[in-house]
């Protein structure tokens, strides 16, 4: 299964690393990089699907200045269902902090959590779990 990816990370290097690993999976149609949750939400608000069955994976860093990952998730949840249904969200985080993980569990839009540093094995395993959520 092939996906389009939207990586949201304020750190240029982390974004490029994520993009490189995503391309190594062989599952990427394309990879967009955005440095803020606000920029990504503006992009999603104007999102027009080119195909009915297009599936995008949002790779979201939790800890960002301005709008953090949790604030992005709050705003994403307000988008129309017709847009949200085409996205799966993978959280990218340095921390396995139980408080953060428990808080993430309250977001139905989050499909997976991937702990940094990214490895190809961890990414492939996470993508396999996400594939199972696609009907």
SSE blueprint:
Elements: E1 3-8, H1 12-24, E2 28-34, H2 37-45, E3 56-61, H3 69-76, H4 81-84, E4 87-93, H5 98-104, E5 110-115, H6 120-131
What would you say this structure looks like, in words?
- This protein has helices at 12-24, 37-45, 69-76, 81-84, 98-104, 120-131, and strands at 3-8, 28-34, 56-61, 87-93, 110-115.
- By secondary structure, it is of the alpha/beta class.
- The protein has a single domain (3-131), classed as Response regulator (Rossmann fold), CATH 3.40.50.
- It has a five-stranded parallel sheet with strand order 2-1-3-4-5.
- The radius of gyration is 14 Å and the shape is globular.
- It starts with a strand and ends with a helix.
The domain tally reads 1
Distance between the termini: 12 Å
Second-tier CATH architecture: 3-Layer(aba) Sandwich
Rg, alpha carbons: 14 Å
Low-confidence stretches: none
Going by CATH, the homologous superfamily would be: Response regulator
Q: Please identify the oligomeric state.
A: single chain
Shape: globular
Q: What's the overall average pLDDT, rounded?
A: 89
Element order: H for helix, E for strand: EHEHEHHEHEH
The main sheet orders its strands as 2-1-3-4-5
Q: How much helicity do the residues have?
A: 25-40%
Most strands sheet: 5 strands, parallel
Structural class: alpha/beta
CATH topology: Rossmann fold
Count of alpha and pi helical runs: 6
Total beta strand runs = 5
Strand content: 15-25%
CATH structural class: Alpha Beta
